[in-house]
Write a structure and sequence with these properties.
By secondary structure, the protein is of the alpha/beta class. The chain has two domains: 158 residues, 3-Layer(aba) Sandwich (D-Maltodextrin-Binding Protein, domain 2); 159 residues, Periplasmic binding protein-like II (D-Maltodextrin-Binding Protein, domain 2, 3-Layer(aba) Sandwich). The chain has twelve helices and nine strands. Strands 1, 2, 3, 4, 5, 6, 7, 8 and 9 form a nine-stranded mixed β-sheet that branches. Strand 5, helix 8 and strand 6 form a beta-alpha-beta unit. 45% of the residues are buried.
């Protein structure tokens, strides 16, 4: 969030405290007026790194429309988002994997708001980078890198003479990226992934950028710059050899820029998982008029910021279905 919005948020909080001390006014951080223009109050959001950049964008744009609204967004992983939502520490959790039966039994309510994907990431200066980009890796090769650890050298992964060790990085925090990547690997769980645990999406990306032989996995927003639409310096995508023919064919070349991978996710050329929906979650259906209005806005007017922020639009039918959840 930029400095202007931070200053605005601080002023609004101070104003809310003063108003709260006045007996003739409503007390509490969430007060909603009768009309759209009179919406006021605070929305708190925490959770998945995957949805964090888009949620920040949505928060900024929504606050421009409603100057008396403050939205606080913090990242900490999908697990934190669900925990905070179920305990009602926040209004909405950002969640980047399927809601489990156990979470549903605890009262989890969810609504899909966009799509993205998890990508395998390597250092752009990897000694075998050309072989990685032209041959790619099959799901089975990724499985033996991340799960069984049978592949310990890059030459083994690419059928070359490369003797450099494969250094694997995974997430140490409970998160949707690891869960979705593990699910792609023969329906495994996050705890089945072997490697050095690193906290957060930015942490894994930094670890790979600093290790010439490193491999990890990241959400799209931490691989591609939304402004240039190109990959961040130091990081490259390890492409999936989907048809297992030992090379990356034209239809599998979907990683050149942000718009290319987004198109591949939308039309199904990139597999799901690791492509998936991203959600807002809460403890039971939201009751706050402000929170409900914000969610409706993200699924309607707010969708115009989805592609710009590096995410994939939900299908129109999916949006209609999700809007019906908000009563």
């Amino acid at each position: 969030m930029n400095t202007k919005n931070i200053i605005k948020a601080s002023i609004l909080i101070a104003f809310a405290i003063i108003i709260g001390m006045m007996p003739a006014c409503n007390n509490g951080s969430k007060t909603e007026g009768d009309g759209k223009d009179s919406l006021s109050g605070t929305i708190s959001i925490s959770g998945a790194f995957a949805l964090y950049p888009l949620s920040i964008k949505w928060a900024e744009e929504y606050m421009k429309l409603h100057p008396d609204v403050t939205i606080n967004v913090s990242a900490g992983g999908a697990g934190k988002g669900m925990t905070d939502a179920l305990s009602e520490m926040v209004d909405l959790g950002m969640f980047s994997k399927e809601v489990s039966e156990e979470e549903q039994k605890k009262g989890a309510w969810w609504v899909a708001v966009t799509k993205d994907a998890v990508l395998a990431t390597v250092n752009e200066k990897n000694p075998e980078i050309e072989a990685i980009k032209t041959k790619g890796l099959t799901m089975e090769k990724f499985y033996d890198i991340f799960i069984t650890k049978k592949i310990t050298k890059w030459g083994m992964a690419l059928d070359t003479k490369g003797k450099e060790a494969v250094n694997v990085y995974t997430r140490s925090d409970a998160c949707g990226a690891a869960e979705m990547w593990a699910k792609y690997l023969n329906n495994k769980k996050q705890e089945d992934i072997q490697g050095v645990g690193v906290n957060g999406d930015p942490g894994v990306a930094d670890a790979v950028k600093k290790d010439i032989n490193g491999i990890g996995f990241n959400n799209i927003a931490y691989v591609f710059d939304v402004n240039t639409r190109k990959k961040y310096e130091g990081i490259e995508v390890a492409p999936i050899d989907i048809n297992k023919n030992g090379k990356i064919d034209t239809e599998e070349m979907v990683y050149s820029n942000l718009d290319s991978i987004m198109a591949a996710i939308k039309d199904g050329r990139y597999p799901s998982p690791p492509a998936r929906d991203l959600y807002f979650v809460s403890h039971g259906a939201p009751k706050s008029a402000l929170v409900k209005d914000f969610i409706r806005w993200t699924l309607t007017e707010g969708q115009k910021y989805v592609n710009e922020a590096g995410y994939v639009l939900l299908a129109e039918e999916s949006i209609k279905t999700e809007l019906e959840k908000i009563k």
